[in-house]
Amino acid sequence: MKNSGSKVVIIGAGNVGSTFAFSLMKSGLAREIVLIDRDEKRAQGECMDLNHGAAFLPPVKIYPAGYEGCKGADVVVITAGSKQKPGESRLDLLQRNAGIVKEIVGSIVRHTKDAILLVVTNPVDIISYVTMKVSGFPNKKVIGSGTVLDTSRFRYLLSEHCRVDARNVHAYIIGEHGDTELPVWSNANIAGIKLSSYCPLCSRKGCSYKKDLHKIFEEVKNSAYRIIEFKGATYYAIALSLVKIVSAILRDENSVLPVSGYMENCYGFNDLYLSIPAIVSRNGIERQLEIELSKEEAAQLKASAQKLKSEIEKLKI
Ligand code: NAD
């Protein structure tokens, strides 16, 4: 297990990058955090502001840099690029962000061949694919944040509904981080009790398993649209999701997380990125876990994969 001396580079010092830097700084996981942004003053200002909290936290060196800052990095987190405007889908960002990320990845690989690349920029599944292709890195070392955030939203909303600690609600959102994602109701459980059995056992009156729980998924799927409409961007929960993923990598945790990973004969899908639960360690994605799905879920996952595949084909990489 290695975590002293860990170096994390964050490309993009905007809402997501700087909030992640703050959360990472508080976690004590990294000894060095580097911020890179084409807006150099922004990166410099964020580093100054973060460093002014040094007296309250475990020691960590935080500084702005050019791409030479990627040298010796354990993890490079890519958050740079355009974000959704109100009403825009993640896929609407594709052409803009694919170009930006190709250029960024070209610069990263001039300085490191060893880091794990963690992609956050949307549409994250396709941008992860682009990153893997352009970097030439082994696919297990290129990870998308995927549906770790959506799954966290799902567990929170279910926990509120069922009045159980979110950490004890076990349920996944899989597929695209976007409009075709799906909930795996068939294995969602509390204390090993499937939700379909838990709900009738719960003494709460007036709750309908089918109707109310479906509404919860709709809320998960539309969360980003609503938050962007209300405050322009989402960044706190994604920052915490990234700390969880980076912790799994730096601490070699073998944590099971629904990150976006390269599909190679996984549920019969090939040559695309999407999220299913995967074991994440120091090496990146150790193994993807093909959880059992109902017929309906399997069909939804296939539709999600087909959508992503058709978007990748349009890019002609
Ligand atoms: P933002 O506009 O606040 O920040 C983006 C930053 O990227 C800016 O500081 C900008 O200067 C920088 N940038 C742009 N082009 C660059 C380049 N070529 N080189 C270096 N830096 C560059 O946006 P944000 O709210 O931080 O969102 C960033 C990305 O993260 C968006 O694509 C957004 O959709 C995505 N996002 C993903 C998730 C997820 O779950 N995967 C969640 C939230 C946001």
Beta-strand content = 15-25%
The molecules bound to the chains, other than polymers, are: nicotinamide-adenine-dinucleotide
Percent helix, as a range, is 40-55%
Q: In which order are the strands of the major sheet placed? A: 3-2-1-4-5-6
The assigned CATH architecture of the domain at 6-146 is 3-Layer(aba) Sandwich
Describe the structure concisely.
The protein has helices at residues 15-27, 40-51, 94-109, 124-135, 148-162, 195-201, 209-231, 236-250, 295-315; strands at residues 7-11, 32-36, 61-64, 75-78, 116-119, 142-144, 169-170, 173-174, 182-183, 189-190, 193-194, 255-257, 260-266, 269-275, 278-281, 284-288. The protein has 317 residues and is an alpha/beta fold.
Could you explain the architecture of this structure?
The chain is of the alpha/beta class. It has a domain at 6-146: NAD(P)-binding Rossmann-like Domain (Rossmann fold). 42% of the residues lie in helices and 19% in strands. It has 9 helices and 16 strands. The protein has a 6-stranded parallel β-sheet with strand order 3-2-1-4-5-6, with helices on both faces. Strands 7-10-11 form a 3-stranded antiparallel β-sheet. Strands 12-15-16 form a 3-stranded antiparallel β-sheet. Helix 3 (94-109) packs parallel to helix 4 (124-135). It is globular, with a radius of gyration of 19 Å. The mean pLDDT is 95. Bound molecules: nicotinamide-adenine-dinucleotide. Nicotinamide-adenine-dinucleotide is lined by residues 11-17, 37-39, 42, 79-84, 93, 97, 100, 103-104, 120-122, 124, 145, 149, 177, 233-235, 238.
